[in-house]
Write a structure and sequence with these properties.
Layout: E1 2-8, E2 23-29, H1 37-42, E3 45-48, H2 54-65, E4 73-78, H3 88-93, E5 101-103, H4 117-127, E6 136-139, H5 151-164, H6 172-179, H7 183-190, E7 192-197, E8 203-206, H8 207-211, H9 215-225, H10 230-243, E9 249-251
């Protein structure tokens, strides 16, 4: 059975009845007690969690404790995914067309112009009426997007480099992956300049992809997410798809043969 897990603080859950019956719903609640009858009726399980580590800790806890080694999908989402993914429900309805690791978001926050509206408009024009999904590219060294200035992401990259002693131009992705003992993925990151991620950490993956991550790596990632460093959450947001086996893009610049 496919599953949707929702990382909730105090967001309203009155929308979850729209989630297709193809999915069980597990709510990880880090806020006020959930009492709405319609939510209690639709949820397969509600699990209270301490309010630490934001959605990263929630996802990792689920990966360590609930995921089997099968071909079913688990959707990982915050409890109000619609700001990042306006077509979220429709995307769930189309799960049979997904890739093994499937981004499910469109933007960060449209009102904040991230990504810029012009980029989204151009991308949507190429979709030909298909649902809105746009994985974002990002620099493995600076952490921002290559197509526009994302001051917040660039700032988080700088904070990470300072905290961990990386020089300007150091590969943040490779450093994080080695910290989590995912050296085989870190070696791939070292050879590339760009990665891809899904805004809001909203994505789906076949459970077998999650089961392939060593338990020690998940444990180290949980410790990373709960270390009390704001930047760490932004690092994980951009690393999920690669931890699950999605390839990096754009090989690193190499000298010519001349």
């Amino acid at each position: 059975m496919n599953t949707v897990i929702l990382a909730r603080y105090n967001e309203s859950l009155d929308w979850i009845h729209q989630i297709p019956d193809d999915f069980d719903i597990i709510i990880y609640n880090k806020g006020e007690k959930i009492v709405a009858p319609e939510v209690l009726d639709r949820a397969f399980r509600i699990i209270d969690r301490p309010n630490v580590g934001r959605e990263s800790e929630t996802y990792l806890h689920h990966m360590m404790t609930q995921v089997g080694n099968d071909q079913d999908f688990t959707v990982y989402a915050q409890a109000d995914p619609h700001a990042h993914s306006p077509d979220f429900i429709e995307l769930l309805q189309n799960w049979r067309d997904w890739d093994d690791v499937q981004p499910l978001s469109w933007c960060w926050i449209a009102e904040n112009n991230i990504p810029p509206a012009a980029l989204l408009d151009d991308y949507q024009a190429q979709l030909g009426g298909r649902l809105r999904v746009r994985p974002e590219r990002f620099s493995l060294t600076a952490w921002g997007a290559p197509e526009f200035v994302d001051a917040g992401a660039n700032g988080m990259g700088m904070v990470y480099r300072i905290l961990h002693g990386l020089p300007d131009g150091g590969n943040i992705a490779a450093h994080f992956l080695r910290h989590c003992k995912l050296d085989h993925i870190a070696e791939k990151a070292d050879r590339h300049s760009l990665g891809v991620f899904s805004y809001g950490a909203i994505f789906a993956a076949r459970n077998a992809r999650v089961a392939a991550i060593p338990p020690i790596s998940l444990r180290l990632a949980i410790d990373f997410s709960t270390a009390g460093v704001v930047a760490h959450g932004y690092i994980l947001e951009r690393m999920w798809m690669h931890m699950l086996g999605v390839d990096f893009i754009l090989p690193k610049n190499q000298p010519s043969k001349i």
